[in-house]
Write a structure and sequence with these properties.
The chain is mainly α and 129 residues long. The protein has 3 helices and no strands.
């Protein structure tokens, strides 16, 4: 009869330790998730700033090229000048957007570390073998 209270006491103590351990694991995972969310936000803001700066400077450059080209060219060559400027500006925009795409593809996906840690946790606590 004296074994039952000891068994219940041991069981509650073990349950308390396990719940404390689970709480600590959950806290660690949430902290990692918050850190990765901050990093993803910073990368997004950097990408938006680069894209906006590229657009602004491309538009200013195109405008100045068109105005100066129209001023310098004789009237019969102006249409060819406009076509050349349009082609050059499209190529510059394409190069800038390719650089932006490369910049975004080189960065790791958001929450990769959190997902990997959660998968590792699930494999540790899994009862299937």
């Amino acid at each position: 009869m004296s074994r039952l209270p000891l068994f219940i006491s041991g069981l509650t103590e073990t349950t308390g330790r396990l719940s404390g351990l689970a709480g600590q694991i959950l806290q660690d995972r949430l902290e990692l998730l918050a850190l990765e969310l901050r990093e993803a936000k910073i990368r997004l803001i950097q990408a938006w700033l680069l894209a906006c700066m590229a657009m602004v400077f491309s538009l200013i450059g195109i405008l100045l090229l068109v105005v100066s080209g129209m001023y310098v060219l004789p009237p019969e060559w102006r249409i060819y000048g406009l076509l050349a400027v349009a082609l050059v500006s499209l190529m510059a925009g394409l190069v800038i957007f390719m650089a932006l795409s490369r910049h975004l593809s080189q960065k790791p996906r958001a929450f990769d570390q959190s997902i990997a840690e959660l998968k590792k946790d699930m494999s540790c606590f899994s009862t299937k073998k």
